[in-house]
What does this fold into?
Amino acid sequence: MMRLTLTLIWFLQISFTLAENGLNGWLRYAPVSCDQHCQRALPSRIVTLNSTRGSPVGTAAQEIHDGLRKIAGKKATTEHTTSCDTHSAILVATVEDYLRVCNNKNSNVPTLNDDGFWIDIDGAQGRIIGQNARGALYGAYEYLSRLAQGDFSPVDEVTSPHAPIRWVNQWDNMDGSIERGYAGPSIFFANGQIVGDLTRAKQYARLLASVRINAIIVNNVNANATLLTPQNMDGLARIADIYRPYGIHIGISLNFASPDTLGGLGTYDPLDESVIEWWSDITDRLYDRIPDMAGYLVKASSEGQPGPDTYNRTLAEGANLFARALQPHGGVLMFRAFVYDHHLTEDSWTNDRANAQVDFFKKLDGQFEDNVVIQIKYGPIDFQVREPVSPLFANLYQTNMAIELQVTQEYLGHQCHLVYLPPLWKTILDFDLRVDQQASPVRDIISGERFKRPLGGWAAVVNVGTNTTWLGSHLAMSNLYAYGRLAWEPKADSIAILQDWVRLTFGANRQVLDAITDMSMASWPAYENYTGNLGIQTLTDILYTHYGPNPGSQDGNGWGQWTRADNVSIGMDRTVKNGTANAGQYPSEIAQMYEDIETTPDDLLLWFHHVPYTHRLDSGKTVIQHFYDAHYSGAETAQGFVPQWESLHGLVDRERYEAVRTRLVYQAGHSIVWRDAINNFYWNLSGIADTAGRVGHHPWRIEAETMDLKGYRPYAVDPFETASRYTAVVTTTNSTTGTAQTKVKVPSGTYDLGVNYFDLYGGQSQWSVYVNERLVGEWKGNSEDVLGHTPSIYLDGHSAIRITFRGVKIRTGDRLKIVGVPDGVEPAPLDYVVFLPAGVID
Ligand code: GCW
It folds into this structure.
């Protein structure tokens, strides 16, 4: 009885004291119900064979030890041994050690590939055998993942990875900022150096290892040569030392011009002897410090980065320079395919950025060294909400390839919008490119299987930061988890992966599981609906933050993310017969499908074809009506996430409940900003009205500019479509308090009162709302501190935001007053007020 009570107290204590700030991600090891009987049936010893100090085998033992204690309240001992005594023990070892020590008893070890493992555990006894030390660690995490999900049943599992390269990339700059990072500064760099305290870096290693990531590139592909100073090389060695026990190699991004800018050679010509020697020397010095360094990542001749083109050398000559320096050390060169001309002119109908990769790389097939891997973004342009597969995957047969995905949501809502990415990734991975009329799914191309390549795999840009949630959002972590799981087994089911993550992250409650599953699975389609449909791309501001809506920014510049929208038609004609011929870069069966508008799937229609807004889709709707409907439907889905999450009140710890709720409420408001901006833009451009009468008609809104203004003045917002009726109000000066008043005309009743305003970077204005002098709500413009998306200093689609006060009682004729106090450069901007009766979204 006493023991039982103690177990109970332990269980309760742990469940209440765990700080749920997200730091442990899915490795919380939260207690699951395990009574004495259950505890007795768990191993009391963790035995490692011949584990050298710092080996992942030792980490495995430590993790199992901690996990058993935290998850099940079971205390186990850890021992290193040279005998095969497995009584009441879990044995953790590499295949080699296992065969050597336990040989006579067990010759039944299954065949494993590099990093694979065999886990065979029944109750208190079993073994975790890795093909290498890293594999043993993966096996340990697999065991713990089962326990943490309350699964204590016997397991006998043999698994090997889909591909040898399962890397993550961080776009961390030496000054500690992170390009396209939305969760605070770098965990690796500050002030031009590697940080002294690598605690967070280590915690990140643990998360990555648990999903079987085997290497990390720690710095931005837009690389800074100062990473190669002796002092910084020492710093890199410190990171490597911390990552090694987790089976993770580190690698770095290089700046192509370093021999000149850092080395002072006056050249960086890849064929110049002094340059070759310089790189080989740098590489030797790095390997002196980090003998197991993974290799390099190079972005060259892209977006203004230096590259071999300066010296009229080919990309292959550029890549091979590094590859050869790495060869004596066994390192890999990841060379990015993201090479294109960003000064392309839209005047020519046949110009097309989507053609660039095949144009640049196809002719070089066979010219790359064997340790070069071409790292290819999933689509031909740039991480858009919907893209076809990059045709380059079907055009290199004698070259290793890896796919590049983005966990950081650069074009997909900066982690301020919930977007569960595996369903998107799967449209790419499962796509059959039909090379030579044979089955050629992308996943088999990148693994190396399809074209019999020795190397291949995966890279994901993750960009975690110092925020305790890692990515800025608790729910966004499902994407990092799923990335690892898919890189190991791309056929794994998106929902099954998600649900493992939910159980590990939030516990086993069925309601929590169902709600997060529903929301996550609805999230990408919703985001596509309210941002950019039919393959037109994410219609975000590509010239500024890549966050909120600005469809006009796609065209008229050299970046090549064109929509070619005019007042009658829209879309890129990528056909061979009449357009950019991009469709012709795919193998014949696929090329034919995309060439013909009838066989092009609707979700890529505008990617491949230029059509009138009145063109009818398979659904029978016109393109323009589809736009309108999809934007309404997407925003409606996002409104639904809020009550769905709120149904979990009390089932999720307070800290995470509130943090997630804040984001979902924000997303619901911002999805309306998106919906209205895109619809207004195309309505304005095409002059074609919404047949359902919604676009441009907002019966429940009161525009701020129509209210009685004191200290406020109307302001024409640019881009116009990001403000309701194109106009907002701002205070007349940066120190004048503004008031906007009006008589309420809606029928008496209870409403949710929404206020759309703009929250700029560079000030924290304060607003208060009164009904007949009764304060019904007040807030501060501090979202730049709370949300983490790239902020804006303008009134635009990034700064537009909605706050809602629920259940406000109103009588017809009441006086509504909003008072805005400006701060810094933020003139307390207001767009409109909306009274929402139950069930109305306006
Ligand atoms: O789309 C662009 C991003 C850049 C990024 C680049 C790349 C690191 O906006 O921020 O640079 O892609 O992938 O190299």
Remarks:
- Residues 171, 179-180, 221-222, 299, 338, 382 surround 4-O-methyl-beta-D-glucopyranuronic acid (CB under 6 Å).
- The chain has a mean pLDDT of 96.
